[in-house]
Design goal:
Chain lengths: 687, 605
């Protein structure tokens, strides 16, 4: 789904240009209070221009016209930035729409393959209906598999072309409308009404049509509105101040409305005001690029705030399965004999642990896997009763299993369980591993060390997270000892052993009561309560319906470490807003130096000393400031869309860097920019 | 500037810091209801108060309750001050038999003293009886100062407490502020003042014969009060002889002590602390200057103690000093450089020696000199005090810009008792918000999340002041009733109006005295301005306190932005200055800045 969209895609560009004009409607403008004041200001100067054109104007028509023109440009540029951000979302939505087509549905009267089939349109399906989907069919709507097993191509949603298995019961029972069954069949109970499916919600989210202002965005809008009011007042009181000055000095002319309007638009935080909604939409878009669907904008923002990350051990911190890493023989047994026996006992053991034993034997001791038929072996599968598995060869009975099960097995046959092996078992479990004891007949041969393998590079990631101020806590069902060993190896800050769904939930509540913001990832139905409680909950797309509904972010790649990226995107979103706000406000200093002397030097020539940029004429000075103010929006669109770069360093370092770039930069840039524009205007003889 | 000047400034700050730290700790003890050393003496009085008034000091109030109690209490104070002035003629302790005060002036004075502004549109020794001075004005000095501190304490509790609605008890906070802090300090200080020659009596004004009669000429008026003109239409002058002088008396020391300590600033005499009976010696000047800054500075320490993180108090105090010192230096240098117009009249303003520092001495007392006058002018405006020991109207344009700008910053550089620090905390919230965004995290201050509600309230509180000042100044500059009070037309006249509304809009009380402020226009508009400035800012402040108190405290982590680092202090300074500059730069450009430019253009070399 996450088709990469170029920053300046021509298709989007064209649409955005058209939309920037369409967005000039008052209904659209009033949604953004800051830009709305610019809107009113533009209308006002337009009227003044018409007055100057046909009657006696307050200033030369040419001057009012140029100011008016650039004020409208300011609005268009702001609209353009929003349209660009939306356009990128729309492009994504296009590809999703293709998956949402009208199809024929085989509705079943009862949930059985033998039941009567009723053909209808997918739009007529409702919650609770049961449908049959066979190989080649598209799944008509979201639902839960109640019977059957099939491989499903979910690339329309996830962009991942490898098919996934969907089956009834367990954690892989949820299916999404718009995906295609490739083999076998499924009986599905529909869980969404038409128009409310996952696909529909996703399209709406991606297009940004359902975007609500997030708390931080709201707070920022309030601050910007307050600043706008202050500047409105500053500029409007300049009129009486000017009237007084002119009357007391008896020279010069009262400042024109056009100049005051120009000053106001320059001072008002139009740069951030214009880019604000584009930043928000782009943040959602970046999530989508990362293949994460944010089910609420708040979740994206909250992701930047979290300070505790709960991660499941299995699959996130460690590779999904334990692996054999070592054969530890009993006294008087050679390691080759142990390895040989272990391999024989595991040849047909299809569990990942079993396979890893065969691999270890082959890699370390050169024992090739033997053909089961040539050695005429029968295999004993693992049962809950014996808690062992193994193989019977002619004259040999090899078993492997938990140490107490094997102990019983040998003692039954009159053997003894040596103390040295007991010690080895203890040592292995203290290191965080699992010990499998191998026995042949009544003799104990030794121990296989099965170990959780910590994923490569994860330790470094946790270190980075720590620098960002985020603590990682590992959650595992293992006992305290094993958990501690793995926690130490993976470099997590803390762990929770013997975790059960209730205890996970209680743990999150406790952390939240201490004031922490908690993020977690999960996929199982038993994760759902904890996901619902967490501040940021990333549900895996492969997970159950319950988990997907409990999460506020959905990871289409089903990769639990994605949380780290999610955090960064959240932070980036806030930083972009902060940086452009700072830039916008510090810009005002230069604009004062451009406009104030221009506006008042005919009353007080001494004020010309404030014209430190040596701008050509009062008109060119004011126009340059207005043009700079408009163009800066265009210049900052790429920054707004791609976001301020986030580095995993401490808050202080981050702040120092951003204050230098956007604070100090914002102070200096307009001096340079306005001067250049003024020079250009002078060169074009527009002074 | 002379070495002596540097020494005096350095000494002032040094003693200030030495005294402020223990006082800060002491005040924190008082407001946290812990043992502070004076309990055995004061506690019985305190308990008696509670019993007499039926106050349960343990009863906690939420923010709305705290606010309404405060407003009601202040309204009562305002009405009392108004009533006493209006009935002054019928009340005792009025040896000069002053008539009752005009209603508009009485309204202005009542709002002025209730709101801790102490803007004085009246001349103390020619308008107010001793009873009015003591019972109305001095009492209100205590109450308004204690109110300011109570508001601050409620805000600090809001930050320090968690998941509660309780902000403390307004009655208890105010009673304790008066009994434990303001009265003991004022008592000691008043005694010191008396020892230096500040008067404290109920005598009627004294007439003394001049050793040498003074002769002077003034335009003669006819019986209707119109100036007499000769045939060339020039005024006819008459010569007058003066053989005796009237010397005003009164209970001065007790009022001067609290007006300095409580950042009130309302002098007993019209010329405030420039009067020899209010501020007779360099020692009293030094101490009065010190007491202007004492509680505001000490409250930063109290803040640190009460939130259990002293670094935060230091950070804010440091930010205040870093803004204060360069601007004060600018003002001192500007005054020391003198006025080129005076130079052109042949007056030598160069430094002769330590005791003859030269500079622009117009409007300054010779016993204080340049440095002590300017240091006072900047301190009294940086804090919300407003007492003066020199005439601000006579400062050079740049020298006058600094006091005005100290107020334009919202009087958060030290600021009034209580009000300064809570004003600064509003700016801290805005700084935290911008900084928080820049590090990609929902902003938080001392573990409390800053959300839309806090932003709304902080924005309102920062917004109100420029709103009043600019709007009222605009009205003043285009109405005849506004312009007619101006003594000096031109850019300086604009500065006079701007200063007046800046002073009232910030509850300061000092004035560019060239403006005749005792007119209906200034009395009424100014009175409204003072009320809005004080009480409308109290509402968002307490609302934030209430909202913060209900929040959880987020534990500190590496992702948290520390608010005591040099970086944060720099940012806070930046935000404070930018907010002030962006709002007032145009107005200042048309007032003091252009005046300075024109002055040197005309007279400079």
């Amino acid at each position: 789904m996450a088709t990469k969209v170029k920053l300046w895609d021509t298709g989007i560009l064209k649409l955005a240009m058209r939309d920037s004009f369409l967005k000039l409607s008052p209904r659209n403008q009033i949604r953004n209070p800051i830009m709305f004041t610019v809107y009113i200001a533009s209308i006002l100067t337009s009227a003044l221009f018409i007055q100057a054109l046909f009657w006696h104007g307050e200033a030369p028509a040419k001057f009012i016209f140029s100011i008016t023109l650039w004020l409208w440009f300011t609005l268009l540029f702001a609209n353009f930035s929003e349209a660009m951000a939306e356009g990128r979302g729309k492009a994504q939505a296009q590809s999703l729409r293709r998956a949402r087509r009208e199809i024929q549905v085989k509705k079943l009267t009862e949930p059985s393959q033998k039941s009567k089939v009723l053909l209808l349109k997918s739009a007529d399906l409702h919650v609770g209906d049961v449908v049959l989907v066979e190989a080649g069919d598209f799944i008509p709507s979201d639902g839960e598999v109640i019977d059957g097993i099939a491989s499903v191509n979910e690339s329309a949603i996830t962009g991942e072309s490898a098919p996934v298995i969907r089956e009834s019961g367990g954690d892989r029972s949820a299916v999404t409308g718009g995906t295609q069954v490739i083999s076998d069949w499924l009986i599905i109970r529909i869980t969404s009404n038409p128009g409310e499916t996952f696909l529909d919600r996703m399209i709406a989210l991606v297009e940004g049509s359902k975007r609500q202002k997030t708390p931080n965005e709201l707070a920022l809008t309030i601050l910007l509105a307050a600043l706008t009011i202050v500047f409105l007042l500053v500029c409007s009181t300049l009129l009486p101040f000017s009237i007084y000055s002119v009357s007391t000095v008896v020279s010069g002319k009262v400042v024109t409305i056009t100049v005051l309007v120009a000053l106001f638009v320059c001072l008002a935080p139009t740069t951030i005001g214009g880019l604000l909604s584009a930043i928000g939409i782009a943040g959602m878009d970046r999530m989508i690029q990362a293949n994460v669907i944010a089910l609420s904008g708040r979740a994206v923002e909250a992701a930047g705030d979290i300070d505790i990350l709960l991660l499941d051990k299995t699959g996130t911190i460690t590779l999904g399965n334990r692996q054999a890493t070592e054969f530890i023989p009993a006294n008087n047994v050679s390691v080759e004999i142990l390895a040989d026996a272990a391999q024989l006992a595991s040849l047909v053991d299809e569990t990942p642990e079993g396979r890893s034993i065969v691999v270890l034997a082959k890699e370390k001791y050169g024992l090739r896997a033997r053909d089961i038929h040539t050695i005429s072996a029968t295999f004993i599968p693992f049962t809950a009763e014996t808690r062992m598995s193994g193989a019977n060869l002619p004259g040999r009975q090899i078993r492997k299993g938990a140490s107490d099960a094997v102990e019983d097995y040998v003692k039954e046959r009159g053997g003894i369980f040596p103390d040295s092996v007991k010690n080895t078992v203890d040592v292995v479990s203290r290191k965080g591993g699992t010990a499998l004891v191998v026995a042949e007949g009544k003799n104990v041969l030794g121990v296989i060390h099965l170990k959780d393998i910590v994923k490569g590079g994860i330790r470094e990631r946790f270190a980075e997270l720590r620098q960002m101020g985020i603590r990682t806590i590992m959650i595992t069902g293992d006992n305290q000892l094993t958990a501690a060993a793995i926690a130490a190896e993976a470099g997590v800050d803390d762990f929770m052993a013997k975790a059960k769904p209730e205890s996970k939930l209680a743990f999150i509540r406790q952390l939240q009561a201490e004031g922490h913001l908690v993020a977690m990832a999960g996929d199982g139905t038993n994760d759902a309560p904890a996901l619902a409680q967490a501040d940021v909950a990333v549900a895996m797309n492969t997970g159950t319906q319950a988990a997907r509904e409990a999460g506020n972010l959905l990871d289409l790649d089903s990769n639990p470490t994605k949380l780290i990226e999610v955090v960064e995107i959240g932070k980036q979103l806030l930083m972009t807003r902060g940086a452009i706000t700072t830039f916008s406000i510090t810009n005002d200093v230069a604009k004062y130096f451009a406009i104030l002397p221009a506006a008042f030097s005919n009353t007080y020539p001494a004020l010309n000393i404030l014209n430190i940029m040596h701008l050509e004429t009062p008109q060119s000075a004011i126009l340059s400031a207005v043009i700079f103010n408009a163009l800066i929006i265009i210049f900052l669109i790429p920054l707004a869309l791609s976001g301020v770069q986030y580095r995993r360093v401490s808050a202080t370092q981050l702040l120092r860097k951003n204050v230098l770039i956007y604070g100090l930069g914002g102070l200096i840039a307009p001096f340079v920019g306005i001067k250049i524009i003024d020079l250009l205007l002078a060169a074009l003889n527009f002074t | 500037m002379t070495g002596n000047g540097f020494f005096q400034i350095g000494l002032s700050f040094f003693i200030l810091l030495i005294l402020a730290k223990p006082l800060g700790w002491y005040m924190a003890q008082v407001y946290e209801n812990k043992s502070c050393g004076l309990n055995t003496i004061i506690s019985p009085v305190e308990q008696l108060f509670y019993r007499l008034c039926g106050i349960d000091p343990k009863h906690e109030m939420d923010w709305k309750n705290y606010l309404s109690t405060m407003l009601l209490f202040n309204l009562f104070g305002l009405l009392a001050v108004y009533a006493i002035q209006r009935f002054q003629a019928y009340l005792p302790l009025n040896p000069q038999s002053f008539p009752s005060v005009d209603p508009k002036l009485a309204f202005n004075t009542a709002t002025s003293f209730a709101s801790n502004t102490n803007w004085q549109a009246y001349g103390g020794e020619t308008t107010m009886s001793y009873l009015t001075q003591m019972l109305a004005l001095t009492v209100q000095n205590f109450l308004s100062a204690a109110t300011g501190m109570s508001l601050l304490v409620a805000l600090i509790r809001g930050i320090a407490r968690r998941e509660t609605k309780n902000l403390g008890n307004f009655w208890a906070d105010t009673v304790r502020g008066i009994l434990y802090i303001l009265i003991p300090l004022s008592f000691i200080f008043a005694l010191i003042l008396v020892s230096q020659g500040v008067i404290q009596n109920f005598n009627s004004n004294q007439k003394v014969s001049l050793i040498q009669p003074i002769h002077y000429q003034q335009p003669a008026n006819d019986s209707t009060g119109q100036p007499l003109k000769d045939s060339n239409n020039n005024p006819i002058l008459e010569t007058k002889e003066l053989t005796e002088q009237t010397i005003p008396m009164g209970p001065v020391a007790s009022q001067v002590a609290i007006k300095q300590i409580g950042s009130n600033g309302g002098g007993f005499f019209n010329t405030n602390s420039a009067h020899p009976f209010e501020n007779p010696t360099p020692v009293t000047n030094f101490l009065e200057l010190l007491t202007i800054l004492l509680i505001p500075v000490a409250l930063c320490f109290s803040f640190g103690v009460m939130i259990n993180d002293k670094r935060q108090g230091w950070a804010i105090l440091l930010a205040m000093f870093i803004i204060f010192i360069p601007f004060m230096t600018l003002a001192v240098v500007s005054e020391q450089n003198g006025n080129p117009a005076l130079t052109s009249m042949g007056i030598d303003q160069t430094v002769q020696q330590d005791l003859h520092a030269g500079g622009n001495m117009e409007g300054k007392e010779t016993r204080f000199g340049i440095v002590n006058s300017v240091l006072w002018a900047v301190s009294t405006t940086a804090t919300s005090n407003g007492s003066v020991n020199s005439m601000h109207d006579s400062l050079t344009p740049l020298g006058g810009l600094v006091p005005m700008w100290m107020m334009h910053l919202g009087e958060v550089i030290f600021g009034g008792v209580g009000s300064g620090l809570y004003g600064m905390l509003m700016l801290v919230i805005i700084t935290v918000f911008v900084a928080g965004l820049m590090v990609g995290r929902t902003p938080e201050y001392l573990g409390k999340k800053i959300e839309p509600y806090e932003m709304k309230m902080a924005s309102i509180s920062v917004l109100i002041m420029p709103l009043i000042v600019l709007l009222f100044t605009a009205i003043g500059t285009v109405t005849t009733s506004g312009i007619s009070s101006i003594a000096n037309p031109g850019a300086h006249g604009f500065s006079e109006i701007l200063y007046a509304f800046t002073s009232m809009g910030n509850n300061n009380g000092s004035a560019f005295a060239g403006l005749n402020a005792n007119t209906s226009f200034y009395n009424v508009i100014g009175g409204i301005g003072m009320l809005i400035a004080r009480y409308w800012i109290a509402i968002p402040t307490l609302a934030i306190a209430g909202s913060l108190a209900q929040k959880k405290t987020i534990p500190f982590s590496a992702g948290t932005l520390p608010t005591h680092t040099p970086l944060f202090i720099t940012l806070l300074i930046g935000v404070t200055i930018i907010v002030g500059a962006l709002s007032f730069f145009p107005a200042l450009a048309l007032g003091p800045i252009v005046e300075q430019l024109m002055l040197w253009e005309q007279y400079g070399n």
